[in-house]
Amino acid sequence: MRETKPEAKATAVACANIAFIKYWGRVDSALNIPANGSVSMNLDSLTTTTTVLLDEALPGDALVINDVPTEGRALERVSRHLDAIRDVAGKRWRARVVSRNSFPMGAGMASSAAAYAALTVAAAGAFGLSLDTAQLSALARLGSGSACRSIPAGFVEWQQGHDHASSVAYSIAPPEHWALCDCIAVVAAGEKAVSSLQGHTMAHTSPLYPLRVRTTGPRVRDCREAILARDMVRLGEVTEVDNFMLHAIAMTSEPPIYYWSDETRRVLDAVLTWREQGLPVYLTLDAGPNVHCLCEQAHAEQVTQRLKALPGVLDVLVARPGAGAHLIDEHLIE
Ligand code: PMV
Fold it and tell me: In Å, what is the CA distance from 115 to each residue of 85, 262, 298, 315?
């Protein structure tokens, strides 16, 4: 570890990610150890850039997101995460954190994965910690489970593991392995009604939950093999099954969580119809109403144009496999 001066600063960029096999439910809610492994792809056009400036004189941590000074629960959560990194560094210095998203504000795409991956790498950099990808992934997981998958590059698997050190993500294949596209139909702006944190906590109240947990291992393997073989049909099929299982669990939790809107349904119907007509496009949803439409580069333009023409689609964001979280030299704080 190099000697760190208080006032050191570092800036990191991290991508959001879309899970093909999803994380839903935990065996350890303090450490965010998931009930099952998961597989995702980093999204190159959906990034968060974060600068962490250590400042001994600060009375507490300070947070600015997209130019807006932010307090309350968001700041508390960031401070808790910084505490975990301060523990590793063995230093108590407070931090100014300034963060900016590349994707449009209010598009309902707020991504805790990109945010906590960027914060982890920037804070570790500011404290002068030299951590490897697995150690950074484990730390990012503490901030938001799925953030551990935004640390490695490209196509990523999060191994369930059994403790802090072993529940980490690694890269299955680099971004250039496969020109896969995620065309995201944005149908709703703003915050989601039920956070994924609440969803993880309630998952075990669904009678379908044990079945999903039991059957995820083979889907993770199937998904990994489909990615390595660049097999769109196999990847699409396993992704859709896992997606609908997650939403079935959400809908049968107590109380039920229903993430879809009328517009979501309209996009789902359209995508399934296009596929019947021969267009190889598959869908998945996170804990929200926006629809991620997966296809190969050759079909991305057609999928994007068709999505844009659907009533209720506010915007279409197109993302390709993205890099891992990394430090950069341009800072958001002078
Ligand atoms: O990392 P969290 O707590 O925001 O959970 C992410 C949950 C899903 O996006 C629905 C699935 C996933 O694996 O990304």
Answer: 15, 29, 31, 22
The residue to mutate among 23, 111, 167, 182, having the most atoms of ligand 1 within 8 angstroms of its beta carbon, is 23
CA dist., res. 12 & res. 268, Å (int): 35
Q: Which ligand 1 atom is nearest residue 158's CA?
A: 13
Which atom of ligand 1 lies nearest, measured to the CA of 22?
13
pLDDT single digits (tens) 139-176: 999 999 999 999 999 999 999 999 999 999 999 999 99
Burial of 275 (0-12, 13-18, 19+ CB in 10 A): middle
Is-contact 289 263, C-beta < 8 A? yes
**Cβ < 6 Å from ligand 1: which residues?**
19, 22-23, 38, 112-113, 144-146, 196-197, 200, 286-287
41, two tokens = 């792809």
**Most ligand 1 atoms within 8 A of CB, residue of 38, 111, 137, 146 to mutate:** 146
Residue 3 has pLDDT above 60, yes or no: no
Alpha helices in the chain (DSSP H): 72-89, 112-126, 133-143, 196-202, 209-228, 232-251, 262-276, 297-308
* Mean model confidence pLDDT for the chain: 94
What pLDDT is attached to residue 103? 83
Residue that has been written with the tokens 């760190």 in this structure: 4
Who's near 122: CB < 8 A, 6+ residues apart? 10, 11, 12, 50, 51, 52, 97, 327
DSSP codes, 249-266: HHHTSSS------HHHHH
| Domains of the chain (ranges, CATH numbers) | 8-176+324-328 (3.30.230.10), 180-319 (3.30.70.890)
pLDDT tens digits, residue range 275-324? 999 999 999 999 999 999 999 999 999 999 999 999 999 999 999 999 99
